[in-house]
Every structure is written in structure tokens, then in C-alpha cells.
């Protein structure tokens, strides 16, 4: 039934373009995750627990890594 609605409305092209965009974005996200810097990934995984204030250990670790 869904195919009939899309086919009869002449919007098959929009469905195909939408699918191509979705797959492209999904592949780009996978590529970004695979090639992400390890330090950046560790920083991102700690963000939900971060209260916005840097502790002494965090501050000295970042200075040592810079």
C-alpha cells in the first residue's frame, strides 16, 4: 500500500534521494567513528559526567598532553 501511494503521487524520486542521503550520512558517521582520535573519543565519553569545572588532575593532564 505504501508503494502504491508513493508511486501514484509521482514522488518516487524523492524517496530514492532520501534513501541515498540517509545511507550516505550513515556511512560518514561510521567512517568518522572508526578514524576518531582516541583522546577525543575518551573526552567525548566523559562529557555526560562532566560538570563543566576542571579538576586539578584534569587540568594538569591536559597541560602534560599539550
Describe the structure.
The chain is mainly α and 66 residues long. The protein has one domain (2-65). It has helices at residues 2-9, 12-34, 38-46, 56-65.
What is the structure about, briefly put?
The protein has 66 residues and is mostly helical.
Radius of gyration: 22 Å
Beta strands, count: 0
Number of domains: 1
Low-confidence stretches: none
The number of helical segments is 4
Main beta sheet = none
Helical fraction equals over 70%
Gross morphology is elongated
Mean pLDDT: 80
**Proportion of β residues?**
under 5%
Distance between the termini: 59 Å
Class based on secondary structure composition and strand pairing: mainly alpha
Give me the strand/helix succession.
HHHH
Topology (SSEs and partners):
Elements: H1 2-9, H2 12-34, H3 38-46, H4 56-65
What descriptive keywords fit this protein?
4 helices, 0% strand, elongated, mainly alpha, 66 residues, 76% helix
Amino acid at each position: 500500500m505504501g508503494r502504491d501511494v508513493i508511486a501514484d503521487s509521482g514522488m518516487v524520486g524523492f524517496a530514492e534521494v532520501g534513501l541515498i542521503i540517509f545511507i550516505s550520512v550513515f556511512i560518514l558517521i561510521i567512517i568518522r567513528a572508526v578514524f576518531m582520535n582516541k583522546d577525543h573519543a575518551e573526552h567525548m565519553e566523559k562529557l555526560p559526567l562532566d560538570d563543566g569545572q576542571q579538576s586539578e588532575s584534569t587540568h594538569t593532564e591536559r597541560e602534560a598532553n599539550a
